[in-house]
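Contributing new records

If you add data, match the layout below exactly. Sequence lines come first and carry their own label; structure lines follow with theirs. Keep one chain per record. Anything else will be rejected by the validation script.
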Amino acid sequence: MKTISGRLLAILVLLLTMVSGGIGILYSSMSRHYYIQEQCRMMDEVYGLLLNEDLPTLCEEENRIKGMAAEDEWEDYADSFLEPYENKNLRFRIRDKEFHLLYATNKSQYISSSDDQELKEQWVAKYTRNATAKYEKIKSGGRVVLRGICEQGGDQFYIMITQSSFVIDRSTAYARSVLFLVIAAFLIFGTICARILAKSIGRSVENAARVARKIADKDFSEKVSETTKYQELNELGASINEMSGQIQSYIQNLETYNQLLQQDNQRRAELEQHRKRFVNNVSHELKTPLAIISGQMEMLSIVQDVQKRQQYCDSAMEEVQRMNDMISSMLQIFSVEEGIEELPMEPLELGAIADAAVQDFSVLFAKRKIQIDLQKQPDCMIKGNSENLRRAITNFLMNAYRYAPENSTVKVSVDRNGKYIIFSVYNDGERVAEKDIDKLWDSFYQGSVIGRESEGGTGLGLYIVKSIVSQHGGECGMENKEHGVEFWFGIPCLQQTGLEKQE
């Protein structure tokens, strides 16, 4: 039997069998001896009572009652002293000093004693004073016997109490038969109870095993019962349920992490594509100004006109500046990503920086007939790096310049919103495609507006803005409006001390 219930049943049945068999063996080996001891004790007790009785009177009365009982078909009489003991299979013989029989349980008082003097002497020799009951063997088997001498009123009486071993053996045999029946019933009933108990425990264990198999198959829909009759099984069920909950939580977290990892891998793959495209774009962008510069340098050696020579020089310088700006952006991105650059911070008025940047772009915006409307609140103080903040503002303005239609207005604002100073740039035009909104702030990513692709650029501008704003502990974002797009970033306000305010 490999199951718990089967082994438990076998153990319980074996235990019941051993207990029952032990009881049977113990009774069989000890019952006869115990019964003889009890009969000896009872005989000693009765003998002690007889010593306190008037034996001649007792014998006369007992013979009279026996005679009356014989006439009335052996009805019991409550006045009899010896009858209760005779009903317990004790046999009495009381003789006088001449060894004449005064009373015998199974004989009439009128039966004469033997006249053989030698035989009488042999019988009398067996009687003792202070007698006690004992077991003796006889030809028919054995018996418990007590032979005592009692003196009353100067007369001597001989008392003999006996019980046959046949009666003892028959009594113990009956008791043994009853005991074996009880043992058999006990075994049957105990086996049934053991089977029920084993089934109950086995059912609980099987249920726990079934739930555990479901957990192994990632099925957490079922719990192990914690309300059985057995504390150990309840504790096992509670442990399995707790384990199930933890495994379920771990699996859910693992699946979440896997999803995040897949998303991160996907973004890394996309970023790698952006990097490759950026390298191609930069290669192309650098190749073009280099070709222009090379051609212009060749023309300088040929052209004699001073004005044209100056134009070629100015054009070459513009291309050099364009290359310088591109390389500076790349170096700044590298510094931000590697944590090399540490920006010096100082108290600044963000409105003044925005005003200066707008002035720089006014001529460029005027070429496309684009108006700039700057709205700013006074005393918008922050702690930051003016050069990098100027670059962030410039990138926002450059985006507006690229995508704002001619004869439109670009709205620039510097405003206080709680603990932040908010800089925003709004321009009319096409909105940003939904698929690009979450990726605009990635490095090397060139998004598109609805209806057309991105116009030039390297995909670094907004990433630089995000890096600069993060260095200042701020946030940035964008929002598609009904007729255009608004980009913004927020920098924490400068917390001025009382002395600073007084100054």
